[in-house]
Amino acid sequence: MTDVTRSGALAPRLQVDGLGVVMARSGTPVVQDVSFEVAAAQVMGLVGESGSGKSTVALSLLGYARRGLRIAEGTIDIAGTSVLDLSGTALRKARGTLVAYVPQDPASGLNPALTLGYQLGEAMRIHDEGRSGDPLDDRIAALLDEVRLPATRQLLHSYPHQVSGGQAQRVAIAMAFACRPRLVVLDEPTTGLDVTTQRHILQTIRRLAIAHDVSAVYVSHDLPVVAEIADDVAVMYAGRLVEKAPAPAIFGGARHPYTAGLLRAAPTPERAGVLVGIEGRPPRPGRWPIGCAFADRCARATEVCVATHPPLEPMGADHLARCYHPVDAKASAPVIAIPRIAPPAAGTGALDVDGLSAWYGDKQILHDVRFRVQPGSCLGIVGESGSGKTTLARCLAGLHSAWEGPVEFGAQLLDPKARRRRPEERRRIQYIFQNPHASLNPRMSVGENVEEPLRFFDRLTSAERRRKVAEVLEQVALGADLADRMPEQLSGGERQRVAVARALIVDPELLICDEITSALDVSVQALVIEQLRELQLQRGLTMVFITHNVAVVRSIAQDILVLEQGRVVETGPVEHVLTHPEHAYTKQLLADLPRFADAGVAS
Amino acid sequence: MAGIMTKSLAAAGTPARPRAAAGRAAHPIRRLLLWRVPLGVLSVVLVGVLTYLATRVLPGDAASAILGQFATPEALASLREELGLDQPLVPGLLSWFGDFVTGQFGTSLATRGPVTDVVLPRLENSAVLILIVALVSTVIGVVGGVMAANRRDGIFDSSASLVALVASALPEFVVGVFVIFVFSVGFLDWFPAVSIIPPEDRIWDEPIKLVLPALTLVIVTAPYMFRMVRAAMIEALTSDYAEVARLKGASTARLLFRHALPNATAPAVQVLGLNLLYLAGGIVLVETVFQYPGIGLALASAVQTRDVPVLQFIVVLLAIFFVTLNILTDLLVLLSTPRRRAPR
Amino acid sequence: MTTHPLPTTSSAGTAARVPAKGPKRSFAALRVLGAALGTTRGRISAGLTLLVLAIAFLGPLVPGSPTAFAAPPFSNPSVPGAGLLGTDVLGQSVLFRVLHGGQHLMLLAFLATVIAVGSGAVIGVVAAYRRGFVENLLMRGVDVVLAIPQLVFALLLLSLIGPEWWLLILAVGLSQAPQTARVIYGAAQSVTEKDFVKAVAVWGVPTRSILARHVLPNLTTPLMVELGLRLSYSIVLIAGLSFLGFGSPPPEPDWGVMVNENRIGMAANPWGVLAPALLLALLAVGTNTFADAIARANLGETRGEDAVLGAAAGPTTEGSK
Lengths: 603, 344, 321
Description:
By secondary structure, chain A is α/β, with parallel strands linked by helices. Chain A is 34% helix and 22% strand. Chain C is mainly alpha-helical.
């Protein structure tokens, strides 16, 4: 942003002071002592991993707490109005005209029983109260024009399920800007959207913020996206702000070890880096320690960190961090270590896909897909939603059988139906699912889940099986004592590691990973990916790694394949394709990726 | 690049199979009718066949079972002929069916008059009862459900939910005798305990005799409407879109009636259909309790007197009602759900 | 079965007591029951049910004749010799008839429930797992059966064939199987669509084993809820049929028959009707509410609501609650 000056003299548009949110019944704090301000037409990025309290803070800005929560203390001032002092009609009036909200998932944030046209005009209808002006239809048309959607009858009469996710999110954004609020709160509005759509949405938000002098609070777990859009960044951990600074200062020199850790864990398209995750998990509300909440996961922690809670202290101009032992600004810049790439041909079997076509019903999803994965190497398959990448994975694994074309693994033709494959083939090829919450049987303990495939592939005594379970759990760094726990007692990252263990226990040769980190937090994703690469190296596994995140591919795969609409558009060594893309689609994909480097551009 | 991507197959929750199917078949309404109407006809035919077969599965012979062991051979023979028992199974079935399709429904064994004379007048009485009950229980259920959902876990919600839970579990004839005890013979003496009227009269000539049977059936059916509307409203009110509407500044009334209620329509229609279906069978017991001159009582007495032609006629009539109502309900549910009505 | 120690709170004793297929499944069923008993509603409804069951099964042990003449018909309890609850239409003791009149009904209801849930669950699970033709055949079949007015059809059969107990059980059980099939079909579908079932299928595990080890254990809660609901509705249906004259034959006491035959004397001695009606009401409410408590305790409030509604909305389709 170039035309808006950051002036300390101006009163901030949004001023949050000492905000605290508690659980309504128990009074357990969920958010504590959150203070920040946002200047006019500025975008504040509110960053945190799941459970950090960022969404709770975001909703508090509208004077709203979800069922079971209560805003207990603090003040929120938006353009001179104290939001938390409002109630009844005044609060309703403020919502929409003073501060507006864009939900995370537009598909569930729009009412399925009402047309888009009605929902677009609703805020105006609520807040106009007889105020005359342009007819509603004209104003709706103008709104749609601002988010670059055609104001056709057809669109206005559509229901939410009839438009794409990107279109729905544009409608949601248009709705938020309808009554010209002073502040817009966006709760992860691009999660689940493709990078190209995401870029368009981010541009739209930025354009509207400037054009109408609207400030924004942008909540996200996605650091590169925040780098792309935010002027200032506030990082939350366990219900508190741990660091707050202008975006370039955060992305160029984070001071809090947690922020620095997040940056090291986030994959970026610019570099092939070893991802460094953060072991452990954040404390849940009610279990917050007396000292620093991050201390038990922090390498720099000392006795003082455990004993007392660090205050939010200045670390430089406009830079606050809650840490007794802040990281050196220079040192926090991501370390670029080139990952060890497994030497090809170390493994046993090559995967040869020589013209695979697949269908769902009458619809052809994959068209003549051809590629080869060298023994012991990893192929990253990237594509946007609808590209057929998951279908491809499922075809190889035998989960989807409506396909044809010669596919060989280790010089053996694979049958489309898993049931018709030989047991040996079924053992050699293992598949890891995207969602670790659905891929483990909730009625079986972790140990039984991991042990389950052994019962069908090997004739072992139960003692031998248990020994193998302990062994493989150790290999994924989970500890054999986890075997007796139930899946519901585990975090998402732990569950995904259990799923990896279950795949590894039968000594597979080809591992198919379908978006296995997309449901995980960044710090956990890094751990899983690093571990997977280590395992691949040790065992000489051949691997197919499906992802929508091009950046992740850099950290795990030797080769990359780009899918678009069921067709291969480009394939080759990762380094080469990502630095010198040839196909227009690949170029676009790479250009649309959010990058840390853009943090400077944004401000 | 177009900014608008087609929505992900995976993100849509289900694989592409349903969508591919939708692409092939016609409009959802036509597809529903194409499916359900033949299936419905099949159901009615099946009921007819079973109804006829029921007279043939006896170890002995239906005619002697009906007339008892002291019947004369002549009487047995004429009854056998009347029921079509004198023919072999398949031709008997076919001729019985043929009579039915051509409107010859047979002669009542009890009155010796046409079956239609016994059944049709009573059909009107039952229809009045069913319609009143459906209307009242829908109004009570919807209003109560909306109120309960609006103040979830409040005093009204908890007490109404408990009452609904209890009432929905009670056997209808038990409710009937309780109602008689309270309003007629035990505590109060407000309404007649039985609804007997002269055979040539219709029930609306003496509407006071409608009250207790209707009350009984309302107590049994309203809880389903209440629980479904409450649950659907709560689901809608706790949804993301309700949160978004609330954060747009929508008032409680707007939230309830504009945002939540349209999403509760389909479930409510479904329960209305189910309630009507239930009523068609439930009247047998309740009309017996009150001696209400409807089709249910006719059925019950036909069972007592083993008046087979009347039984067969009522059973087939009810089956047609069931099938039609099922299709109508599904059609209305389809029409009140944009997600299902309008193709992507 | 595996020899892994059972996790968390179970004591080995409780698991061993139930003779089910394997310790794991009985464990799940007990946990589901235990959760329901942990709620106030669950405890009250279980108490009600047990009270009525005790009266039904222990009542016949109480000395006293249900068929002997005690006092003039419809005598008040105040009339000497009429007993605690007065006399019925034939001058027999209402108290003894009530004590003797529940056992038969209850046994029939249990058997009908087993038939309903057993056949319904098999149809539902198989239809959900075997996609395509089998699924269509089974579920469309369920639709057709649901379009038949069951109470009415049961009446037709019973009036022609006679009030045979096996026919009563079959009619009541099979008429409810479609409801269970629908509920379990829905629940099983959401389980079979889960990745962990697909994962197992890819290993080439036989279908029977997948259903038994991975699908069924995840259906414990809906199955328990169904058992409770079907028992409740079987009681209601069988009582309704006996009210219409298909209960135990005349000299034998039967709660449903009692309500019918003593109606005419309600003004003189209401207990002849109220006592059996009250017991039937308590039993139906107790079992139904316990099913509700199971659903709530094990699925969380909102999802429990759905499960109960899906199941509760079912029985009305048969037009013979």
